[in-house]
Amino acid sequence: MPHLNAGYNLARWLARDAHDAEDVVQDACIRALKYIGSLNRADARAWFLTIVRHAFYDWCERNRPAEIARDDGSAIEAAVDHAAVDPEQAALRRAESKVLADAIAELPLAFREVLILREMEELSYKEIARIADIPIGTVMSRLARARALLQGSTRLRAIGERASGGVR
Amino acid sequence: MNCNEAETLLARYGDGELDGVKRRLIERHLRGCAQCAARHADMLALRARLRSEAPYFAAPPGLRERVRAAVASTPASASGVTRPSGDRWRWLGGGAFAGCAATVLAFVVGTTVVDWRENRDLAVEAVALHVRATLDRQQIQVASSDSHTVKPWLSARLDYSPPVLDLAAEGFPLLGGRLDTLDKRPVAALVYRYRNHTIDVFVRPESADAPPLRTLRGFNVAHARSPGWDWLAVSDVSSEVLTAFVERLAREAPAP
């Protein structure tokens, strides 16, 4: 059941909530029915992810309008600060994978979506550009920011250093 | 190439987006520049952590049924809205929409039916086998991550003894195997997992056919050859991953 999983994973990372993600995916499937004429048969996964993304943004506008407004890029630095919780405490409190998942979840929406599409769905810049409806150059700059934010996250770095046994 | 030039290309290199010329240039630079090599290693390390630690959320079991029900109960008007030439199609009635819904379910939920009678080649047939096996939940007849269990099971049912390798350390754990029929002949199908995707690998004694890498309705097919063996991998993982995987298998397999 490949594409439903991909769709759910994207929706789940965008919505950051299991129940909301299900609603988004269900809506996306209904939309898929409408847009079936636009399906390029070679590329069903990217096609479906595009629809899931649209369904998410529409859902978000209805249910969490603040999130989209907040996520115009001005939230970038806030995201960094947010991640800068006391590393010791954070490491003790959570499993390491939870820390990474939280850091991803804290990325601004625009960065989070390109990161998920690239690293989890392993889509090309071109495919991501088409899905997110942005130029390829923007895909690259957002990816770079997403990675820089994750790498710069104090919590993650603390754990990474602990895991590798010292400061690099 | 200097560090400034390398820096602009590093991400694209790591994402597999560079052509051969630039790739070779940056590889040469990375061999000679510890600083850029470290940055590249950082990116690979982050990717490894993302792929091993961050969860890939598979659709919950109930969602598939929920989607099926929602799509089935969506009134025809939902489709009609986007068809300006509506009247012309009205005579098709529910049947057409039912067909539409079936197509959506096929692509989204995975009940893809590949009609390979029209385009009968090995890649198409392999995709059909993969899809049928995943749908029937018959993908694995002998479930074991131990190649020493899977190999004799298959050998006992075939006129050859397929190489069965475990690449769990590389992130491709062996799930098991099954007997299938490819190109009218019994074939060993090995089932691997990569993250939450399954990969079917059909391995059979060397033959002349060599389907090129191709995509069929969202599935990738990769082919490789090793002395004495012919490898065909089918999955919905990306073509780069699938190709690297099947080439790895072919490289490591002992000759018959």
Short description:
The complex is a heterodimer of chains A (168) and B (256). Chain A has 168 residues and is mostly helical.
Keywords:
heterodimer, A: 168 residues, mainly alpha, Rna Polymerase Sigma Factor, Chain: A, Arc Repressor Mutant, subunit A, 2 domains, 78% helix, 0% strand, B: 256 residues, alpha+beta, Phosphorylase Kinase, domain 1, 3 domains, 7 strands, 47% helix, 19% strand, globular
Can you characterise this structure?
The complex is a heterodimer of chains A (168) and B (256). Chain A is mostly helical. Chain A has two domains: 1-70, Rna Polymerase Sigma Factor, Chain: A (Orthogonal Bundle); 72-168, Orthogonal Bundle (Arc Repressor Mutant, subunit A). Chain A contains eleven helices and no strands. The longest helix of chain A is centred in the first third of the chain and has 20 residues, at 44-63. The radius of gyration of chain A is 17 Å and the shape is globular. The relative contact order of chain A is 0.12. In chain B, helix 1 (3-14) crosses helix 2 (20-32) and helix 2 packs across helix 3. Chain B has three domains: 3-53; 61-108, no CATH class; 122-252, MucB/RseB, C-terminal domain (Phosphorylase Kinase, domain 1), CATH 3.30.200.100. The model of chain B is unreliable at 76-100 and 107-120 (pLDDT under 50). Helices cover 47% and strands 19% of the residues of chain B. Chain B is globular, with a radius of gyration of 23 Å. Classes of the chains: A mainly alpha (168), B alpha+beta (256). The interface between A and B is large, with 51 and 54 residues.
